[in-house]
Amino acid sequence: MPLFHILAMTALILAGLAGGANAATTTVRVAVPYSLSSAAGRNLVIFEREVEASGIGLDIALHPDDSLVAGNEVPNAVAAGALEMGVASLARFAATLPAVELFQLPFLLDREELVRAATEPSSPVRGLIDAAILETGARVLWWQAGGGTVLVARERPVRVPEDLRGRKVRVPNRILARWVELLGGEPVRVGTADQPAAYRQGTAELGMTGLSTIRSRQLDAVVKGITDLRLADSEYLVLINDAFWRRLDDRQRQLLTQVARRLEGELRDRVAQAERDALAYAREKGMTVYRPTPAELARFRAASEPLWRAFVERAGEPGKRLLDAVEGLKRKAGG
User: Fold this and answer.
1) pTM for this one?
2) CATH architecture entry for 150-231+278-333
């Protein structure tokens, strides 16, 4: 019998146990795609401790490193009720909800303050995404910041779009691969762990990565330049099965919501500080960190607009509404 069906049968048995705070303790299984020692993992450990210490009758069981189900199965497993909770990359929803690719569009949410505005619980951007996911049967409990994507280079840092022309560029996804092609570069798919070897061997001359990998993957030994910009954004969603959520009592739902909101803000602050620390570390290691001028950033945005238009064509009306919501946030932020 497939693991998914076994989990679903188990969930049906456990469902009858979910009730008020006076009921027997209910186990809440949480599928986690990363290590609990990561920043996002520690965020979940705090959630586990605080919920269990609250006395509301919920026992949080974290299953890290895809040990319960594969990461690509989490959205469906939670939506179907095979799992009570799970964490999934926002990008995992792209196959069924193309509009979530908004966060992968280059130079759309290109400032930290814009990402914060878009991911606030009251944001129209987040509201549209959360509502679409809720229709699948999974409720978003909180968003986990994954950080921004920057450009790195074996030699001098990228300054303008033309610097990608004719270069081999490591890319993390299909959308950014298309962006590289638009700029005349050659996209190369290289896994996160394989980045050092790719730059050392010349498989990639430039690349896109999260700032945390500069230290964790020792990229400072193989690349010399960083372009300090937010090319795209990475987000994870902590999901809870909506039917399970509705079976909880008011006290349980209120406590989960309060803890989730606080942890969401704490992690986003922690990730932002970690990115600043990563840039300081890069400078200490002798890397050149280049911050594009406003005029250069404008050229990058103009070069990215064809992908924004293609996104609306692919995602339809939901995509247009999201793009309009982002433009509204930009006008409110004054840029």
Assistant:
1) 0.90
2) 3-Layer(aba) Sandwich (3.40)
